[in-house]
């Protein structure tokens, strides 16, 4: 009898270890879709001045818009686009991805459709969940931000940016989908270029916006699953119908 | 020459009159879909006490939940569910529709898919746009509300309620869709029963929520077109995938 009890205990331990192993892995596949578990990062900066300059330049059609350091003379250089830190790095658009991976340790995923599983949604604002997504020959940055636009009322903002120019961004459509508790919320839009600055996109509210109660309804055990799909742009056929 | 000029003027007048006629009609058909032009109504009441009692009863599974007047002894009576006014009317669920039509002059539309065109979105909160929708043998109440949850920051809340019991409501799914400016926002959910009180649904934020900037992006000339579709419920097939 003791033998069977010990065997049962060992099996339970193995199951527990296996579960921990999967939990620890940041990327795994479930139900045929690539699921990426993304842990939150406390934002160390909110530097509106950097973004204000970037936005002003973008509106005037000047590229690269985020470039406003007088000391640098190469107009092809762009500043670090990581929304987490005030980073002094500047470089060409082609090397932004490797900078984000190496310096800011942002993961990159492959695949046209993935599930972004943001953990610990209850943590206090400001908080960011960030991942890069490689798809259709381009790299995209998905940012989920918890922020208090109105004091005491945190909201969640989710957007997708192309690590490329606004012209390139116009060739794509991204979709974010939440689906749980007999509710479904879908947001489809053209990704904005990373040169336009993620902070201004979020402060304009031109993204998927969730209040806390809705985020809770879509969450499971403190984690929010966002289905992501990227396609090449086509005219929204039903736009004319409405 | 003068004759032709006068003829041309007369034709222009006729076109203008025809346009005015269509504009004045509250319901017309465009692009194969029934479009309902809904003008805003300034809300005369916000009575949370009535709704708090209703919600408490619903949570306990007692029906009809909004009934809490001691003077009335018939448990089948429900109070007026019009979200616009504090109305003393009470009656059976079956006659709520005729009360809303006759007393509160809320229009009713037929059709599985309609477009709700809310005008004058710029008017200050609190404001309501309301229509009834007859479909699949039942009547639904669509409420779009502009309200300031956070002072100085008006938001738009849209929800659909079944004029029936919560059990009946579980048999349906409604979809609200906004589509404009290369952005698309879809909200799908089970309609709530009108017995649950629209005010509490909106204050919980368990509905389609739009901030002002997003509402402007989806608006055309001050009007917001919301595509509405109602279907009988089925399990959300992709829910298991995420």
TrEMBL record, chains A, B:
<comment type="function">
    <text>E3 ubiquitin-protein ligase that mediates ubiquitination and subsequent proteasomal degradation of target proteins. E3 ubiquitin ligases accept ubiquitin from an E2 ubiquitin-conjugating enzyme in the form of a thioester and then directly transfers the ubiquitin to targeted substrates.</text>
</comment>
<protein>
    <recommendedName>
        <fullName>E3 ubiquitin-protein ligase</fullName>
        <ecNumber>2.3.2.27</ecNumber>
    </recommendedName>
</protein>
<comment type="pathway">
    <text>Protein modification; protein ubiquitination.</text>
</comment>
<keyword id="KW-0863">Zinc-finger</keyword>
<dbReference type="GO" id="GO:0043161">
    <property type="term" value="P:proteasome-mediated ubiquitin-dependent protein catabolic process"/>
</dbReference>
<feature type="domain" description="Seven-in-absentia protein TRAF-like">
    <location>
        <begin position="134"/>
        <end position="228"/>
    </location>
</feature>
<dbReference type="InterPro" id="IPR018121">
    <property type="entry name" value="7-in-absentia-prot_TRAF-dom"/>
</dbReference>
<keyword id="KW-0833">Ubl conjugation pathway</keyword>
<dbReference type="GO" id="GO:0061630">
    <property type="term" value="F:ubiquitin protein ligase activity"/>
</dbReference>
<dbReference type="InterPro" id="IPR008974">
    <property type="entry name" value="TRAF-like"/>
</dbReference>
<dbReference type="InterPro" id="IPR004162">
    <property type="entry name" value="SINA-like_animal"/>
</dbReference>
<dbReference type="Pfam" id="PF21361">
    <property type="entry name" value="Sina_ZnF"/>
</dbReference>
<comment type="similarity">
    <text>Belongs to the SINA (Seven in absentia) family.</text>
</comment>
<dbReference type="GO" id="GO:0008270">
    <property type="term" value="F:zinc ion binding"/>
</dbReference>
<dbReference type="GO" id="GO:0031624">
    <property type="term" value="F:ubiquitin conjugating enzyme binding"/>
</dbReference>
<dbReference type="GO" id="GO:0016567">
    <property type="term" value="P:protein ubiquitination"/>
</dbReference>
<keyword id="KW-0479">Metal-binding</keyword>
<keyword id="KW-0862">Zinc</keyword>
<dbReference type="GO" id="GO:0005737">
    <property type="term" value="C:cytoplasm"/>
</dbReference>
<dbReference type="Pfam" id="PF03145">
    <property type="entry name" value="Sina_TRAF"/>
</dbReference>
């Amino acid at each position: 009898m003791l033998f069977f009890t010990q065997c049962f205990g060992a099996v339970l331990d193995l199951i527990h270890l296996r579960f921990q192993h999967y939990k620890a892995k940041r990327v795994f596949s479930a139900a045929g879709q690539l699921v990426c578990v993304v842990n939150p990062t406390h934002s160390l900066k909110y530097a509106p001045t950097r973004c204000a300059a970037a936005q002003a330049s973008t509106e005037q059609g000047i590229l690269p818009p985020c470039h406003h350091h007088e000391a640098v003379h190469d107009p092809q250089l762009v500043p670090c686009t990581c929304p987490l830190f005030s980073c002094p790095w500047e470089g060409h658009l082609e090397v932004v991805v490797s900078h984000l991976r190496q310096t800011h340790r942002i993961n990159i995923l492959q695949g046209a459709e993935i599930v972004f599983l943001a953990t610990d949604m209850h943590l206090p604002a400001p908080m960011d969940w960030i991942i890069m997504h490689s798809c259709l020959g381009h790299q995209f940055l998905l940012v989920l931000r918890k922020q208090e636009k109105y004091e005491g009322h945190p909201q969640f903002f989710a957007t997708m940016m192309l690590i490329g120019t606004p012209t390139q961004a116009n060739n794509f459509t991204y979709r974010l989908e939440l689906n749980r508790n007999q509710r479904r919320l879908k947001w489809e839009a053209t990704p904005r270029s990373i040169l336009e600055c993620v902070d201004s996109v979020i402060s304009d509210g031109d993204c998927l916006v969730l209040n806390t109660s809705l985020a809770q309804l879509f969450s499971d055990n403190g984690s929010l699953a966002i289905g992501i799909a990227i396609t090449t742009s086509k005219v929204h056929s039903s736009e004319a119908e409405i």
